[in-house]
TrEMBL record:
It is found in: Cell membrane. InterPro entries: EmrE-like, Small_drug/metabolite_transptr, Small_multidrug_res. Pfam families: Multi_Drug_Res. One of its GO terms (cellular component) is plasma membrane. It comes from Telluria aromaticivorans. This is Guanidinium exporter. Gene3D superfamilies: 1.10.3730.20. Keywords: Cell membrane, Membrane, Transmembrane, Transmembrane helix, Transport. It is a multi-pass membrane protein. One of its GO terms (molecular function) is transmembrane transporter activity. Belongs to the drug/metabolite transporter (DMT) superfamily. Small multidrug resistance (SMR) (TC 2.A.7.1) family. Gdx/SugE subfamily. The chain crosses the membrane at residues 27-47, 59-78, 84-103.
Length: 105
């Protein structure tokens, strides 16, 4: 269950990052509200997951999901640039997340 909470916490991290971008510096009400709610949900789920999962593992996976998720959202929804270097960086992050999960066994 802790791993599911951590995954959902990471997804909420992507949601709040995207909503923060849409809030235009917290000047738009609803994206700002979504940002704050998603942040709270992300932190609560991360804290709950950390009851079972070690800090280093949980935090690394949480931030990795956020980083790769924000990268994908940036490309797919915001039209951000795609190039080989950025894709390789994202792949390396995913590889690190897989290794971190495997190392936790």
């Amino acid at each position: 269950m802790a791993w599911i909470m951590l995954l959902v916490a990471g997804i909420f991290e992507v949601v709040w990052a995207y909503a923060m971008k849409q809030s235009e510096g917290f000047s738009r009400l609803w994206p700002t509200v979504v940002t704050l709610v998603a942040m709270a949900a992300s932190f609560v789920l991360l804290a709950a997951a950390m009851r079972t999962i070690p800090l280093g593992t949980a935090y690394t996976i949480w931030t990795g999901i956020g980083a790769v998720g924000a990268f994908v959202v940036g490309i797919t929804l915001l039209g951000e640039q795609v190039n080989l270097t950025r894709v390789i960086a994202a792949v390396l992050i995913v590889c690190g997340l897989v290794l971190m999960k495997l190392a936790n066994h």
